[in-house]
Design goal:
6-stranded mixed beta barrel, elongated, 11 strands, 2 domains, alpha+beta
């Protein structure tokens, strides 16, 4: 074993002449461990929320969504569709058409987004797994059926007993307003559908979307074959990046080809910014806690001044003595880092298994306890951050405090 490392290890575990130095060393390790554990837990909670958000979005959003750069709709040409059919990484695709509309049920009215989908939509999304009442369907005995978000169902007080239809209103694209304002009703297109089921994903979707048959929405909006998006599900194991690049070549510069992250680009960017802002704040707190390491090393150097004299008389040079105390500081940080990662990991595991820290939402959210997901790369970042702080904290007392004791020649 390297001599400075061996002496530093002995100093770490051996009893000091003054018991207070042992206590301060333990406090230093404890402070580093608590800071490290806090980093592991906080970042894992952020990862848990991010993973939950992605899983919820995956229930509605496709793997890849293709939209026109110019205009709200486009007509998919047969050549492009033939190329898509020949791609081996595509499992299913669906044509969709979205537009804002006014919904009316009884004496209640709201503005929502109607999304017309074809029969393949159920194979592209996981919406059928998020149905909380009724069933997912496009038609019931040739009668068009709507699948509404839970928030819309609540606002309109919808039921699924097919006793009364939902009225959907949108302005006509082709007819011009003539006569008085009272005649404007002639320029409104109407569609009557029945509620077949309600879904619950998250508030963003639950209060916004109503799923309708594509053909009914196209007729309502006076389109023949126009769609607003082509939604694609990839086969398991397919590379999303390669799929995006291939589809960009097929569709050209007039279309956006978005993977799931690009579909919610700002939300994920904000979440990552919050995560790493918290990381930097906790690292700063850990930096303050590292002053305990400086204090511990300073007192240890003072306590071991006689040992320094003995080592000098035996031929040890100044550099070797500095290395001994430098490694001592590294060991304090290393012990704290390992203990903190283990402790933080155990807390995260207990939360994942038992969920003992609840959100306090009384069942109003899709989960009851804080979600936790540990990423190995985050643990690695934390370890390197803690050790970097430990190196800085050890370097200062070794560089300046030992000058007083290693400058004497024997």
């Amino acid at each position: 074993m390297n001599f400075p490392v061996y002496i530093a290890k002995r100093y770490l575990i051996s009893k000091k002449s003054k018991n207070v130095i042992n206590i301060i060393s333990l406090i230093s390790i404890f402070g580093v461990a608590i800071g490290t554990a806090a980093l592991v837990i906080i970042l894992s909670v952020f990862n848990g929320f991010e993973d939950l958000l992605k899983r919820l979005n995956n229930s509605f959003d496709p793997d890849i969504k293709i939209e026109a750069k110019y205009g709200k709709t486009f007509i998919p040409d047969n050549q492009t569709i033939e190329k898509i059919n020949n791609l081996d990484f595509i499992e299913a695709y669906s044509f969709c058409l979205e537009e804002n509309a006014m919904l009316e049920f009884g004496d209640r009215q709201i503005i929502a987004t109607i999304k017309g989908v074809d029969s393949e939509f159920i194979n592209v999304s996981g919406l059928d797994s998020m149905i909380i009442s009724g069933n997912y369907m496009n038609y019931f005995h040739d009668v068009p059926v709507a699948v509404a978000g839970r928030g819309i169902a609540y606002d309109l007080q919808l039921n699924i007993n097919f006793s009364a239809p939902i009225s959907v209103y949108v302005p006509s694209r082709t007819r011009q307003l003539r006569g008085s304002f009272q005649d404007a009703t002639d320029n409104i297109n109407r569609l009557h559908v029945y509620a077949g089921g309600f879904f619950a994903i998250q508030q963003e979707y639950d209060t916004k979307y109503v799923i309708l048959p594509l053909k009914e929405v196209q007729n309502l909006l006076e389109f023949d074959n126009d769609i607003s998006s082509l939604e694609i599900k990839l086969k398991k194991g397919s590379s999303v990046k390669n799929a995006v690049r291939t589809l960009e070549k097929i569709f050209g510069d007039d279309f956006f080809v978005k993977d799931r992250n690009m579909q919610h680009e700002y939300a994920y960017k904000i979440m990552k910014a919050e995560k790493w802002t918290i990381f930097m704040i906790l690292v700063f707190i850990l930096l303050i806690a590292s002053f305990n390491v400086i204090g511990s090393l300073t007192m240890l150097i003072i306590d071991k001044k006689n040992d320094i004299k003995i080592l000098k008389s035996m031929g040890a040079n100044n550099n070797l003595i500095r290395k001994i105390f430098f490694f001592e500081g590294i060991f304090i940080s290393l012990c704290g880092a390992i203990a903190g990662i283990v402790f933080g990991g155990v807390i995260c595991w207990l939360q994942m298994k038992y969920g003992f820290v609840s959100l306090g939402t009384s069942g109003s959210f899709i989960i009851d306890a804080y979600p936790v997901y540990i990423k190995a790369i985050d643990v690695l970042y934390i370890f390197f951050a803690v050790m970097l702080i430990g190196i800085v904290a050890a370097w200062y007392p070794v560089r300046y405090i030992t000058k007083k004791f290693v400058s004497i020649d024997y």
